[in-house]
Amino acid sequence: MKNQSNRNRVINIIKALSKEIPDSIIALKFSTPFELLIATILSAQCTDVRVNEVTKGLFKKYRSPKDYAEVELKELEEDIRSTGFYRNKAKSIQGCCQELMNRFGGKVPKTLEALVTLPGVGRKTANVILGNAFGIPGIVVDTHVLRVSRRIGLTKNNDPVKIEFDLMEIVPKEEWTDFSNLLVWHGRRTCVARKPLCDQCVIRRWCEDGSKI
Ligand code: SF4
Questions:
Q1: CA-CA-CA-CA torsion for 122, 124, 125, 129, nearest 10 degrees?
Q2: Is 56 a catalytic residue?
Q3: Which atom of ligand 1 is nearest to the CA of 200?
């Protein structure tokens, strides 16, 4: 019963947010699944704007997994330095590209099970790629989706993987990717971390926190 009412709320939320944000595509710029994989690894603890600035040059210099795997680690670190945590990210990117060449013929795999075996790739990154590069539905629980779905009252959990499974129960599968992107945009523009703008919020009537205010 609870799930049914949550499903109804979700449908209304998707309708209202799609109307408000018709262009809710992912903000990271890419032209291939491989580019999105690299951009998503770089986006940890970094803004999408900064990642897009860095990848503009990076994607011209490095075109394939082989290019990243064969470059000196130090050089790659310098190339991605401004995204922060660059040592770990460079190591992940090189390890990931090595695995792509060794096990997947240089191609990005199309299943969650295979993607999460790559260095630097967890469920969040895997779902970003499935949904946005391959059109295979995936729920992405980033900091915005986590915060907004808790405030709305769609989950009581704090753990991103548990939240992903809660949302999979109540969001129609064909909407998983769009729903995630809508919540990210809503979290950036309206349901911001410090002080949500509830008086301007188009989904307030379906939000548990908003209706208390
Ligand atoms: S009503 Fe407030 S807390 Fe609820 S989703 Fe909107 S901005 Fe966020």
A1: 130
A2: no
A3: 7
Query: Could you report the per-residue pLDDT of 39-94, keeping only the tens digit for each?
Result: 999 999 999 999 999 999 999 999 999 999 999 999 999 999 999 999 999 999 99
2-24+139-212: CATH topology is Endonuclease Iii, domain 2 (1.10.1670)
pLDDT band at 211 (very low <50, low <70, confident <90, very high): low
Length of the chain, in residues: 213
Segments making up each domain of the chain, as ranges:
2-24+139-212, 33-133
Ligand 1 pocket check for 154: Cβ under 6 Å: no
Whole-number pLDDT of residue 213:
55
Pick the CATH number of 33-133 from 1.10.560.10, 3.40.50.300, 3.30.420.40, 1.10.340.30: 1.10.340.30
**Count of Cβ atoms closer than 10 Å to residue 73 Cβ:** 12
Q: How far is the CA of 146 from the centre of ligand 1 (A)?
A: 13
**Residue 123 main-chain phi, psi, to 5 deg:** -60, -35
- Answer whether 203 contacts ligand 1 (Cβ < 6 A): yes
Q: Read off the tokens for 112.
A: 């969650």
Q: Any catalytic annotation for residue 142?
A: yes
Cβ of residue 9 lying under 6 Å from some atom of ligand 1? no
Determine the average pLDDT of the residues in 189-211: 93
